[in-house]
Specification:
Blueprint (H helix, E strand, L loop, with lengths): L1 E3 L5 E3 L8 E3 L12 E3 L36 E4 L9 E5 L5 E3 L14 E3 L22 E9 L6 E10 L6 E9 L2 E8 L5 E3 L5
């Protein structure tokens, strides 16, 4: 039922622990061994954290980067329980495409890294960008950026920006492109619906 070996590894349900704590078996997937191994090769290992507001925390102690390793299988965030996993809320597939509300991102199959937001007949998909407290005229509410990364520093960018108008209830959309790596606003649609070309003001 339990074994503590001469290396200080503790095994629960295994007689040959290869991690500091091995539960259910040994971690044979890689040469490098985890600190804690939870193993069930029949139905898949699981780790439960229970409480009012369970938290999974990564306490970084140096300059490293916390990681989740997916072993080329993608990753799903689902809305159910161990008894009934429920529907997929977020999916990262094996190509790095991200789906929200769908387990099949990149519906059109284009050769691209894709974010797919899928709704239903009553709850359509939407992509929102916003500012919680923008009070300045022409202050940015959100921005979609396009860039070319031929070198270490991105250049040749273009962008579409949502801007606050003169008052909180007004907004503009502006379009930027770059020439010789210098960006400039080329077109603006004002809150009135009027369009400006090559100028930010009438």
């Amino acid at each position: 039922r339990m074994r503590l070996d001469t290396s200080g590894n503790l095994g629960l349900g295994t007689s040959s622990p290869d991690s500091l704590l091995s539960v259910g078996g040994t971690f044979t997937a890689t040469t490098a061994k985890p600190t804690v191994a939870v193993v069930n090769t029949t139905s898949g290992g699981s780790l439960g954290i229970r409480g009012k507001s369970p938290i999974l925390a990564f306490d970084r102690t140096a300059s490293g980067t916390p990681k989740i390793l997916m072993d080329s299988g993608g990753l799903e965030f689902k809305d159910g329980t161990l008894d009934d996993e429920g529907d997929v809320n977020v999916k990262i597939d094996t190509s790095g495409n991200v789906g929200i509300g769908t387990d099949s991102p990149d519906v059109a199959g284009f050769p691209s890294s894709t974010l797919t937001i899928e709704g239903s007949s009553t709850n359509y998909g939407a992509f929102e960008l916003g500012s919680a407290s923008q009070t300045s005229a022409d202050g940015r509410l959100g921005e979609i950026r396009f860039y070319n990364k031929e070198s270490a520093n991105p250049y040749g960018f273009a962008s579409i920006r949502g801007l606050r108008g003169a008052s909180a209830g007004d907004s503009h959309i502006s379009f930027f492109t770059s020439s010789s790596n210098t960006g400039a606003e080329r077109m603006r649609i004002l809150s009135s619906g009027n369009m400006l070309l090559g100028s930010a003001s009438a």
